[in-house]
Design goal:
alpha+beta, three-stranded antiparallel β-sheet, 3 strands, globular
C-alpha cells in the first residue's frame, strides 16, 4: 500500500457524474492502484468558496451538484491514466 498525501499525490481526473465516479473507482481498484477521492458539494454554502456563499444554488444545474476529484500517487499517474482511458 502506497502512502498518498499532499506531497506525493497528483490529480488524475475530475468528474461530476456519479456513474463515472463509480466506473473510475472500479478501474483503479481492478488495476490495484491506490487513490483518494475528494467530494465537493457544490450546493453547500461556504465562506471559503468565493461567490457561492453569496449566490447560493440559484440557477445551478442539479447534475453538477457534486464534484469528484481523484488523486493518485505520482508514480502511479501514467498507469492510472491508462487504466481509466482504456476499456
Amino acid at each position: 500500500m502506497t502512502m498518498i498525501n499532499i506531497f506525493t499525490r497528483r490529480e488524475l481526473t475530475v468528474t461530476y457524474s456519479m456513474e463515472q465516479e463509480s466506473a473510475i473507482r472500479s478501474r483503479l481498484a481492478a488495476e490495484g492502484i491506490d487513490y483518494i477521492i475528494r467530494t465537493v458539494n457544490r450546493q453547500s454554502p461556504s465562506p471559503f468558496a468565493g461567490r457561492r456563499s453569496f449566490t447560493g444554488t440559484f440557477g445551478q444545474a442539479i447534475p453538477l451538484a457534486y464534484e469528484y476529484i481523484f488523486y493518485v500517487h505520482r508514480r502511479d499517474y501514467e498507469r492510472a491514466l491508462f487504466a481509466i482511458r482504456s476499456n
